[in-house]
Write a structure and sequence with these properties.
301 residues; alpha+beta; Immunoglobulin-like; 2 domains; five-stranded mixed β-sheet; four-stranded antiparallel β-sheet; 5 helices
């Protein structure tokens, strides 16, 4: 049983004990009110109220365990610098999944001389990031961090799969670690490099506890995860604490353009038909109704 599980078990036992002790004290206090003799009734009432007070103390103890149990325990029992969850790296055979032989030149061309020149033996924070510091709390120089474990899903620190080789496409990466003796409010920084080039960073005042689990993450489009060697550096203040590396293989998907292309209308030639035939108009006969004369009768004398 680890420290966290022990603290949770103690809290549950405190709550259960509070329920039973409070119930016992309440029943004793209620039964004392039915006694006839004054002195015995007062003794029973005091005993019941004292039992209720003990139950409230147990409830307060459970609350203190919930609020301060883990930080205090980590001060006396610091976590191991290395994470006990050491999964076997079974992703190494994924190198054979490269679809074409053309991927090998891209892997050999990435570690160029310009990339190795940018990585210095002692990591440091670039001045453009140092000016973004906003915390005035002095960091603890004795703060320690464990080795970084890389995973694509760190929603549960007690159950995740870590690795050193990852295959495209990717959209998210998380570096998990344990820490101890951190000062809340002190500035901490995480720098993400790809082949020696800074691609992502975060620098904020520390908003966690003095000890426990922590992580730094990077979420980006799949087209930004180019193949190469990635390196994550952890700083507390200006002091370098821990560094870790992982490798991304395979070509990244091509980014889908978000701009709408402008369409230039192309004028089309409209041909005017030329009539080559001769149109002969045939006159139509117009029928005219000629009135007929009707003879009038004549009177014969």
């Amino acid at each position: 049983m680890d420290i966290r599980a022990g603290i949770i078990a103690a809290i549950v036992l405190s709550v259960i004990g509070f329920f039973f002790v409070f119930r016992s004290g309440y029943r004793a206090w209620m039964s004392a009110r039915k006694l006839t003799f004054y002195r015995i009734r007062r003794q029973r009432e005091r005993a019941g109220l004292f039992t209720i007070f003990i139950s409230l103390v147990m409830l307060g103890f459970g609350f203190l365990l919930y609020r301060y149990g883990e930080p205090v325990a980590y001060q006396y029992f610091p976590p191991s610098p290395t994470i006990t969850l050491t999964p076997s790296i079974t992703l190494s055979p994924t190198i054979t999944l490269s679809p074409t032989i053309t991927l090998s030149p891209t892997i050999t061309n990435t570690p160029s001389t310009t990339d190795t020149a940018t990585i210095t033996p002692t990591p440091f924070i670039p001045p453009v990031i140092e000016v973004l510091f906003e915390s005035a709390v002095t960091p603890n120089p004795n703060a320690i961090f464990s080795e970084l474990q890389f995973t694509t899903n760190c929603s549960d620190f007690n159950n995740f799969t870590a690795g050193a080789f990852f295959q495209n496409p990717l959209t998210y990466m998380c570096a998990v670690f344990t820490y101890d003796q951190m000062t809340p409010g002190a500035q901490w920084t995480a720098l993400w490099y790809r082949n020696g080039e800074l691609v992502h960073y975060e620098t904020i005042p520390w908003n966690g506890e003095t000890g426990g689990f922590g992580f730094t993450e990077w979420r980006a489009q799949a087209s930004d995860w180019l193949p190469g060697t990635y390196e994550v550096q952890i700083f507390v203040g200006l002091e370098w604490k821990q560094i870790g590396q992982f490798i991304v293989e395979g070509d990244a998907p091509t980014a889908v353009p978000t701009t709408t292309p402008s369409i230039t209308p192309t004028p089309s030639e409209t041909s005017t038909p030329t009539s080559t035939g001769t149109v002969t108009q045939t006159p139509t006969a117009t029928r005219t109704n000629i009135p007929t004369l009707t003879p009038l009768p004549t009177n014969t004398p």
